[in-house]
Design a protein that fits this description.
Two copies of one chain form a homodimer. By secondary structure, the first copy, chain A, is α/β, with parallel strands linked by helices. Chain A contains twelve helices and eight strands. Chain A folds into two domains: about 180 residues, 3-Layer(aba) Sandwich (Rossmann fold), CATH 3.40.50; about 90 residues, Orthogonal Bundle (N-(1-d-carboxylethyl)-l-norvaline Dehydrogenase, domain 2), CATH 1.10.1040. Chain A is about 50% helix and about 10% strand. In chain A, helix 1 crosses helix 2. Chains A and B meet through strand 8, helix 7, helix 8, helix 9 and helix 10 of A and strand 8, helix 7, helix 8, helix 9 and helix 10 of B. Chains A, B: InterPro entries: 3-OHacyl-CoA_DH_NAD-bd, 3HC_DH_C, 6-PGluconate_DH-like_C_sf, 6PGD_dom2, NAD(P)-bd_dom_sf. Chains A, B: This is 3-hydroxybutyryl-CoA dehydrogenase. Chains A, B: Keywords: Oxidoreductase.
Chain lengths: ~325, ~325
Amino acid sequence: MMPESRTVAIVGAGLVGLGWALVFARAGYVVRAYDPSEEVRGRIMSQAEDSLADLREVGLLNDPQAALSRLSVHDTLAGAVEGAFYVQESVFETVEVKTAVSLELDAVIGAGTLVGSSSSGIPASRFTEQCAHRDRFMIAHPVNPPHLVPVVEIVPAPWTATEGVERVVALMHEVGQVPVRLAREIDGFVLNRLQGVLLNEAWALYEDGIASLADIDATIAHGLGMRWSFMGPFETIDLNAPGGIEDYAARLRGLYADMVRTPPRGPWPDEVIAKATRERRAALPAEDLADRRAWRDARLSRLVAFKTSQGLSD
Amino acid sequence: MMPESRTVAIVGAGLVGLGWALVFARAGYVVRAYDPSEEVRGRIMSQAEDSLADLREVGLLNDPQAALSRLSVHDTLAGAVEGAFYVQESVFETVEVKTAVSLELDAVIGAGTLVGSSSSGIPASRFTEQCAHRDRFMIAHPVNPPHLVPVVEIVPAPWTATEGVERVVALMHEVGQVPVRLAREIDGFVLNRLQGVLLNEAWALYEDGIASLADIDATIAHGLGMRWSFMGPFETIDLNAPGGIEDYAARLRGLYADMVRTPPRGPWPDEVIAKATRERRAALPAEDLADRRAWRDARLSRLVAFKTSQGLSD
């Protein structure tokens, strides 16, 4: 069972940490945030206010003021963590920084407090080994921004206690995220492995001149990505053959095996990246990247509202 | 330029061919449909009427009766093709069947008439070599159902005339599809190569016990698939690093290269398919597959209406 405390701590309050603060605050939790940068700390409240207003505008939140009132900013890590039963750590992603912050957390967390790291690629075993309470550290990897994209990968280190993993999975369900539980550590976890294979193939097709960057993008945005926005690849193929997944596999696994590139292509080549950069910058000048990100998040928030209205949000 | 004719022919009117009939009829074209099966021919009009009513219900079509009045069913292939400037062929996908139908079309199509095959994997060079007018045959591969998922891959055979490819690309734009133009034939084209690499990795993760089928699905449906439903993988990474695609590549191509399975995994093993089948059938009994497909298409049609309302449909 969860401790009585309804307090969580946010350690590292850049874009990812801020999104996490919104996730917990809107779900009714008291959220205590800390970031090592004074500048970042100084803008947390106003950024949160703006984002909560955006959520209200698309119908995803009734009372932004109530959510905001549950959020506070603290000048020290120890101050933020005080009374928290769960810490979401979202600091800069290097082994050195993650190790230092984990040791700092290890020294101040209360009895039973659990720590989830937003690490997108480095497994917890690489930065929590020296922690006295290492059995309470794990990965809780979101997609950015976490208050709009609900999936979160829960990845235990070899020494993480199963009970703690189960508590964090339950917590994520309770706050409206969609936790995905990995049995053990693997490079890239599940999400970035799936993204990685698709990106590697997309780069190879582009390198070989099969299609333009824009056309490869269209294949996903106006094709595969539409079903995938509300059902995964296994359910998709289960519905794509008369007899379900087994029937689909019997018909097509040979085709898919034949498509595998052997030997595998190496890292994306410099000159191909340079060509792709020219194609993207012609479509979207560098100075418009920030506006396009805001556009993306606005579309994402409306997609979330749409999925919610259709009963597709979990 | 397009011929004066506003008539297209549908050859093969199963689910894919029927969807194509709706695409052209709602766009104002006269559509003449043929299927070798009398039973299939007998249900085309009522199926089209139902689907056009569904499109109206979600706000994607104003006048279903007008669209239906442009559609007719013919008892012979030659009869359907009469007067058509474009033929969309969607017959059963084997080299033998495609070859026979292509030769039949070759003998009756008018001067300048173009033929696109809905083939999802067999390239046109494998079934049009013997055609006298083989320079007018190509692949026009949709996602099912084509009236809801707009992408269509245009793939020339080595002998397909470029002018004809350009006409079909223009036609697809005009009827509201999103054509993706491939420079040349490649196994699986673009769409199924991208789907294939992701499926192969998903099966491998499942085989290794990293996560459940449902959790791997959730990683896409509540994670990666959300952005991919309105922007492709290249635009996604372009927006996911401060300096755009080049910056993203510099940071992460090494990580993605390290994830490649070497040697590649073979075809999905029988026992893994059997296990996955049990997991899927526990989640969705076989007798509910048809209902779930109807549910999927209803959600897809509402997603299309949502994307249209957000300016995301092309």
